Amino acid sequence: MYQNEPLFLNPEFKDRLWGGTKLRDVFGYTIPSETTGECWGISAHENGPSEVRNGPLAGKKLNEVWESNRELFGHESGEHFPLLVKILDADRDLSVQVHPDDTYAREIEGENYGKTECWYIIDCDPGSEIIFGHHAQTKESFEQMIEDGEWDQLLRRVPIEPGEFYFVPSGTIHAIGAGTMILETQQSSDTTYRVYDYDRKDASGNTRELHIERSIDVSTIPHQDPPFHPVTTEENGLTQIQLVNSDYFTVYRWEVDGEYALHSDHPYLLVSVLSGEGNITSSEASYSLNQGDHFIIPSTMKECHFEGDLEMIVSKSNKE
């Protein structure tokens, strides 16, 4: 199938104990509850696939398009779509958690992928922080501090500001703090091991399940901060910052100011509009772009034209 237009997607939303209403209040989404924590903007995962809303594929789920129209993705190999893009509204602290790598996820969980992810801080309240790593130097001390509940001594807290970026490889102990909105680009996995949940109880008075043994199995000890070397390039109408280039994905922040013509030999690009408005034009048609839009530029769309004042997070798969 030859398609010379972007694939716009309708997100899926997830109610979470820690969620709020900013996905509605800031992005204008119609959310299912007052505790909506996640917008799965670009997803082919079975737990929440996005739906195409334009063109001849309208009404199809992204996982179906991946199966039936692989030419739109440069004939990339692999049974499953590799990436998942979310916007998270942390009205309350998320649990402290860790994710497995590919090998562990496949052998133990039967999942397609492990979960390496990254965060772009869209906005946060003054004084907000994340948990990023831990202070234990050995597995023995890590286990002992968990057993003794020495969370203040174990967990590494980092203050954050809007516009910051964090790469979170599998094995990294982490948590998003209250009052934070992030865009998360990750491997397409829904496997999370919960280490600590502040002894919170749900509406039924039950504490949530912890996964201590598996958390210990997969955690990186001692913690290692991944390198961060952003690369900025400028073209006519575009400022591009490469935020990370990992084994699984490359993620960019794009600022379009005026007009920008994209000529690309990419397999496909995942795009989320964080702010501003404008349009994208191909030889087929022109489409308006607004805050909260999520779309894919397929590999068959070699040229397009952006116009407006736009801030976007753009990613591509690095899967062979």
Automatic annotation (TrEMBL):
<feature type="binding site">
    <location>
        <position position="117"/>
    </location>
    <ligand>
        <name>Zn(2+)</name>
    </ligand>
</feature>
<comment type="similarity">
    <text>Belongs to the mannose-6-phosphate isomerase type 1 family.</text>
</comment>
<dbReference type="Pfam" id="PF21621">
    <property type="entry name" value="MPI_cupin_dom"/>
</dbReference>
<dbReference type="InterPro" id="IPR001250">
    <property type="entry name" value="Man6P_Isoase-1"/>
</dbReference>
<dbReference type="InterPro" id="IPR051804">
    <property type="entry name" value="Carb_Metab_Reg_Kinase/Isom"/>
</dbReference>
<dbReference type="InterPro" id="IPR049071">
    <property type="entry name" value="MPI_cupin_dom"/>
</dbReference>
<feature type="binding site">
    <location>
        <position position="174"/>
    </location>
    <ligand>
        <name>Zn(2+)</name>
    </ligand>
</feature>
<dbReference type="InterPro" id="IPR011051">
    <property type="entry name" value="RmlC_Cupin_sf"/>
</dbReference>
<keyword id="KW-0413">Isomerase</keyword>
<feature type="domain" description="Phosphomannose isomerase type I catalytic">
    <location>
        <begin position="8"/>
        <end position="107"/>
    </location>
</feature>
<dbReference type="Pfam" id="PF20511">
    <property type="entry name" value="PMI_typeI_cat"/>
</dbReference>
<dbReference type="GO" id="GO:0008270">
    <property type="term" value="F:zinc ion binding"/>
</dbReference>
<dbReference type="InterPro" id="IPR014628">
    <property type="entry name" value="Man6P_isomerase_Firm_short"/>
</dbReference>
<dbReference type="InterPro" id="IPR014710">
    <property type="entry name" value="RmlC-like_jellyroll"/>
</dbReference>
<keyword id="KW-0479">Metal-binding</keyword>
<dbReference type="GO" id="GO:0004476">
    <property type="term" value="F:mannose-6-phosphate isomerase activity"/>
</dbReference>
<feature type="binding site">
    <location>
        <position position="99"/>
    </location>
    <ligand>
        <name>Zn(2+)</name>
    </ligand>
</feature>
<dbReference type="InterPro" id="IPR046457">
    <property type="entry name" value="PMI_typeI_cat"/>
</dbReference>
<protein>
    <recommendedName>
        <fullName>Mannose-6-phosphate isomerase</fullName>
        <ecNumber>5.3.1.8</ecNumber>
    </recommendedName>
</protein>
<dbReference type="GO" id="GO:0005975">
    <property type="term" value="P:carbohydrate metabolic process"/>
</dbReference>
<keyword id="KW-0862">Zinc</keyword>
<feature type="domain" description="Mannose-6-phosphate isomerase cupin">
    <location>
        <begin position="241"/>
        <end position="315"/>
    </location>
</feature>
<feature type="active site">
    <location>
        <position position="194"/>
    </location>
</feature>
